[in-house]
Amino acid sequence: MLLEDQPFIPKYFAYDVDLNKQGAPNIQPAIDSVPMLPEDAVPEQGALIIDSRPEKIFKQGHLKGAINLQNATSLKHGWVVS
Question: Do the Cβ atoms of 49 and 43 come closer than 8 Å?
Fold first, then answer.
């Protein structure tokens, strides 16, 4: 049988199959809704600052304490800030 000896199927798998069939929603509206700080902004004490610019640009200058995450819109980076 084709499915014999196949690994365990996680509960989220069915959701992923449906999502892959229809395509993920466009993330751009969510990105566009994130307010950008003006260049002269001073963050609150203890604020978490995620800088998603390319590493080369980040290294040229960034806010003190900023964390550089490439492709920061990716959910896989959630563990960094949790």
Answer: yes
